[in-house]
Amino acid sequence: MLDSRNPAVEISCDALSQDKNLVTSRCFDNQGSLLVKNPLKAPEFQNAPHNVLRSTEMGAAQSQLKKEELEKLQEHSHFQQKELKAMYKQFRKEQPQGYIDKEEFREMMRQMGVVDSFLQDLIFNVFDEDKDGGINFQEFVAALSVMTRGDPTEKLEFAFNMYDIDGDGVIDKREMGQIMESFYKLVGPLVTFSGKKYESPSQLVEEFFDIMDKNGDGKITLEEYKEGALKNPDVIQGLKLFS
């Protein structure tokens, strides 16, 4: 499909989510730039494929959760149905297209004081479970449930998934080093709840691996991470900040 304003620019649309309640789509130019989140509102997209337009219509029309979806969300989160209904109403008001894209999420993080783009993207990637480039309501609820009401094990798994940058199931020193560098840019030298101060990211990374990497292979598995973290009073105290 071509942009009517500039025939040299080719436009393609893709379905962002196939969830039956939150089906949305996005359109890009041939440079990969996001042009619009709702093709129906832009004249140059009126000739988009029918299935793309239909997907967008369905996403915009879903004004409330179906009973079975509500029950499923309650079952897999720490929220009650009344809370979920209120959350969904607010989510649809602020995100009528049915999802939060990366730029919107970054702005949300900046407002919360997380100004480092690397950290913003790490958190986004944990929220975006299906890696489709957008956070739908189900993903939003799942992450928020863990962050605010999850037990220590759930929160540690969330943190592990954030630290595991390449998604290979382990944390290596390179990944942890990148994350600690960003934390230091954000808050400066880290002082733990017990009063210990780390002057450099590398100092913290080395101690982290000394404690967590039980078999000394330079990689930390989820089980190693949980076992080591649950024995560390500073980590446990830190998890309480999100309760």
Automatic annotation (TrEMBL):
CDD domains xrefs: EFh
EF-hand domain span: 98-115, 123-150, 151-186, 200-235
InterPro entries according to UniProt: EF-hand-dom_pair, EF_Hand_1_Ca_BS, EF_hand_dom, Recoverin
UniProt GO MF annotations: calcium ion binding
Coiled-coil features, chain-numbered ranges: none
Key words of the record: Calcium, Metal-binding, Repeat
Keyword flag tRNA processing: no
SUPFAM superfamilies listed in its UniProt record: EF-hand
Recorded family membership: Belongs to the recoverin family.
Name listed for the protein in its UniProt record: Calcium-binding protein
Organism, as annotated: Planoprotostelium fungivorum
